[in-house]
Design a protein that fits this description.
Layout lengths: L4 E8 L3 H12 L4 E5 L7 H4 L31 H14 L6 E3 L3 E7 L4 E6 L2 E10 L21 E4 L13 E5 L3 H10 L5 E5 L6 E2 L8 H9 L1 H23 L1 H18 L3 H7 L11 E2 L3 H5 L4 E4 L2 E5 L2 E4 L4 E3 L2 E4 L14 E2 L6 H5 L17 E3 L12 H21 L4 E4 L1 H15 L3 H4 L21 H7 L8 E5 L2 E2 L1
Parallel strand pairs: 1-2, 1-6, 2-3, 4-17, 6-18, 7-16, 8-9, 8-16, 9-12, 10-11
Antiparallel strand pairs: 4-5, 5-6, 13-14, 14-15, 19-20, 20-21
């Protein structure tokens, strides 16, 4: 029988969240390990290797503030560069030695009597006083329930599990979904395929992407004068926050829609196709998409735009209007399990009830970070912290400061446990829901992944990121039920 390996802190996942947590834990001198089920770090930037995969926020913002990267070669970095940045940063801060690759969490249980999290993994048992989840929401592919899809006679894959061994040249290809991934990979595959059939349930707003190659002289400037890089990051942050005003005041985004309409009109001349691609909801209601080549690709003669896919029959696809199409391959650009987080089905409270059972389809946490019933546990990029306009690193760093404050309080105080007070969590979530009421997420007239299985917006933060950073800053023990060795206070 394997001996249990015990640490003060265990971090689940070695993507951007897990690496950030590892860096901060190492700087604090804490005993910890990171469990990563894959054989490499990078999380979503490891998994998503589809053609054209890139960041949709400016590169200067898409990094840890304490580890800026002056070497970005594009204003909006591509997947390979982001993956390389995460790997280089992990090496620079010497945290790779703390990552246990090939170790998948199967189940984590809170042991109240011992004050420990007990983990069952593919590498045997682990235990820790504190658990930090860095698995993130862009992790598990969402495979749509379409009749006949599992019996399709050709090749099928999800964009985040790209089949690089399959040659798409001269093939008849169906793309299901027109979200952020499809907008990036469709222009890359369109020139080489014989036919591209795009199945679109809802048209998307696509704005021009202010992307460009970063010349060596500019990179030298950023490398030689860190103040210049800080100034660029501050300017880009201010620009994104200005855009963020529109999410709270939708009338502003309706003005920006004019840019989207012009962008579409210039690229797509056919009025029928243009009408099919024109959204009927307010910009920002769904995730904001940026591309300079998506509309020209979709306007090409080998592309057919269909309504949503209804059924698959052998190698034949039937759309919502009853039109039939024969294809060789299906690519699913259908997104991820954003709010029904897979980790929630693997983490259990002291009574054996999972986090998913607690949530009942509507994730809630205090400051998106701690959950009642789950002591000594912290979620990174948790519910009610998503924004439509800024970098996940901004959210992550606010949470890391807060979570590490909690880690230090528990370990320095030698507490048995710290659990968020139910009234604190409930008050925070009520405040968020009230704040969301007038935002574009709720008034824009669309259905989006921001809303959970119960129709509640469990994803979005309704205010500025500056307010988020102020709010999620210092861990306050008064918000928690603290159990010390000698009892409860």
């Amino acid at each position: 029988m394997n001996e249990t390996r015990q640490y003060d802190v265990l971090v689940i996942g070695a993507g951007a969240s897990g690496i950030g947590a590892a860096i901060r834990l190492r700087q604090a001198g804490r005993d910890f390990a990171v469990l990563e089920k894959a054989d490499d770090l990078g999380g979503t930037w490891r998994d998503n290797s589809y053609p054209g995969c890139a960041c949709d926020v400016p590169s200067a913002l898409y990094s840890y503030s304490f580890a800026p990267n002056p070497e970005w070669t594009r204003a909006f970095a591509a997947q390979a560069e982001i993956q390389a940045y995460l790997r280089t940063t992990a090496e620079r801060y010497d945290v790779q030695s703390r990552i246990r690759f090939g170790v998948e969490l199967e189940r984590a249980d809170w042991d109240e009597s011992a004050g420990l999290w007990r983990l069952e993994t593919t590498d045997g048992p682990y235990a820790a006083r504190i658990l930090i989840s860095g698995t993130g929401p862009w992790h598990q592919p969402l495979i749509p329930e379409i009749a006949g899809l599992s019996e399709f006679t050709g090749e099928v894959w999800h964009s985040s599990r790209w089949n690089h061994s399959y040659d798409l040249k001269a093939k008849r290809v169906a793309v299901i979904g027109t979200g952020a991934s499809a907008v990036q990979f469709v222009p890359k595959i369109q020139p080489s395929v014989a036919e591209l059939h795009l199945f679109q349930r809802t048209a998307q707003w696509v704005l021009p992407k202010p992307d460009h190659y970063v010349p060596q002289a500019e990179r030298w400037l950023m490398r030689s004068f860190p103040a210049a890089q800080r100034a660029l990051r501050s300017a880009e942050y201010a620009g994104m926050e200005l855009l963020g005003l529109g999410f709270r005041h939708p009338w502003l985004l309706r003005q920006v829609q004019r840019v989207g309409r012009l962008h579409l009109r210039r690229a797509v001349r056919d009025p029928l196709r243009r009408a099919a691609l024109m959204p009927d909801y307010t910009l920002g209601c769904k995730r904001l998409l940026l591309s300079n080549d998506y509309y020209p690709a979709v306007a090409a003669s080998n592309v057919v735009v269909h309504p949503g896919l209804r059924v698959v029959d052998g190698n034949k696809l039937v759309d919502a209007d009853g039109n039939e199409t024969v294809v060789d391959a299906i690519i699913l650009g259908t997104g991820f399990h954003i709010l029904d987080l897979p980790i929630a089905h693997r983490v259990y409270d002291a009574d054996g009830q999972s986090l998913a059972e607690h949530w009942k389809g509507s994730p809630q946490a205090y400051l998106g970070t701690t959950v009642k019933g789950f002591p000594n546990a912290f979620l990174l990029l948790g519910p009610s912290l998503g924004t439509g306009h800024t970098s996940a690193f901004m959210i992550l760093e606010a949470q890391l400061r807060y979570a590490l404050g909690g880690v230090e309080a528990i370990l320095r105080g030698d507490w048995h446990s710290a659990e968020i007070r139910p009234e604190a969590q409930d008050a925070f979530n009520a405040e968020v829901q009230e704040g969301l009421a007038g935002t574009v997420y709720e008034t824009g007239g669309c259905a989006s992944y921001y809303h959970d299985a119960n129709g509640r917006n469990s994803f979005s933060w309704p205010w500025s990121t500056a307010r988020m950073r102020r709010r999620i800053r210092d861990f306050d023990p008064a918000d928690y039920l603290v159990s010390e060795k000698a009892g409860v206070r």
